[in-house]
Amino acid sequence: MSLPNHILTLSCPDRPGIVHSVSGFLLERGGNILDADQFNDPETGLFFMRVHFSCHRAEYDLHRLRAEFGEFSGQFAMIWQLHDATRKSKVVILVSQHGHCLNDLLYRYHTNHLAIEIPAVISNHKDFYQLAASYNIPFHHLPVTRDSKPQQEARILEIVREVEADLVVLARYMQILSADLCRELNGKAINIHHSFLPSFKGARPYAQAHQRGVKLIGATAHFVTTDLDEGPIIEQDVARIDHSMDTDTLTSIGRDVECMVLARAVKWYCEHRVMPNGGKTVIFQ
User: Fold this and answer.
1) Which residues contact 220 (CB under 8 A, 6 or more apart)?
2) Mean pLDDT for the stretch of residues 79-97
3) Which of 7, 123, 148, 243 has a CA-to-CA distance to 273 between 20 and 30 Å?
4) Span 186-229, pLDDT tens digits
């Protein structure tokens, strides 16, 4: 019989003895550390830690561990979370009319390359209802106009709450979320876009890049905030291009990069490897 596995993440003001104290807390309760990562940010004076551990004492279930760690954490002013490492995160995906990121996430989910559950796909268009149906995932068509936007967003939030989603992924969802919805989803929504920003805004960014003769194209995955496309960055990547490539080639390469970057961001988030650090993130890979 396998032992219960948990993941503890924490941040707090840095001071001597944190690792020793956390390790001692776990040891006293039958914890065996399987892997651990830590980082001290000298700019902010904060300490970050992620610990994956098993527990040998049956009386220390997740509920009791959380209660006792809550008392323990006060002496360090910790911001912390304790997760069941075997539980799959529930991810709701929002998409519009570009389906490459959606298709990639669904395939990774189906082949267990992403240890997640996808209880809903939401779109303001009908283009991908058959794709979602092929994976037996409920598809919610929620068209939106300027007048209906508040009602549409209210329904999005209702679905997110109904399925108890841990994460919302904007997989090329081409609608600007309202400030209210951004605040409701704070820390649990990820967006993906090309990395040309703030250059080449608006329609056909790859055509604009081609006309300017850019040599690198890429993608950025970041948390959704009220500052459009400026949330804390989780992952980025680039691909080198040259003068021989036309707009269609650039677009194809760019979409491949978007898929890879978004998949990594979702994976790390759902494995509890992403920790906020002001306007930045700490990623324990």
Assistant:
1) 192, 193, 194, 195, 197, 233, 235, 236, 261
2) 97
3) 123
4) 999 999 988 765 566 667 777 887 788 888 888 999 999 998 78
Distance CA 258, CA 158 (A): 28
Q: What is the dihedral of CA 27, 34, 265, 83, to 10 degrees?
A: -40
All structural domains of the chain, each given as residue ranges with its CATH number in brackets, are 5-84 (3.30.70.260), 89-283 (3.40.50.170)
Of 14, 37, 127, 229, the catalytic one is: 229
CB within 8 A of 32, min separation 6: which ones? 3, 26, 53, 54, 55, 56
Q: Which residue reads 């649990």 in tokens?
A: 188
| 245 Cα distance to chain centroid | 32
Q: Are 165 and 92 in contact (CB under 8 A)?
A: yes
| pLDDT at residue 1 is higher than 80 | no
- CB distance 5 to 84 below 8 Å: yes
Q: Which residues pair with 115 in a beta bridge?
A: none
* Catalytic-residue membership of 229: yes
Average pLDDT over residues 136-147: 96
Has this prediction a pTM greater than 0.85?
Answer: yes
Q: How many Å apart are CA 51 and CA 57, to the nearest integer? A: 18
Residue 212 and residue 133 in contact, taking contact as beta carbons nearer than 8 Å: no
Mean pLDDT across the stretch 60-76? 96
Higher pLDDT, 195 or 173: 173
Show the tokens assigned to 2.
């396998």
Which of 275, 274, 265 is CA-nearest to residue 114?
265
Within 13 Å, how many C-alpha atoms sit on residue 2's CB side? 7
H-type helices in the chain, by residue range? Answer: 18-28, 62-73, 100-110, 129-134, 149-162, 179-184, 205-212, 247-270
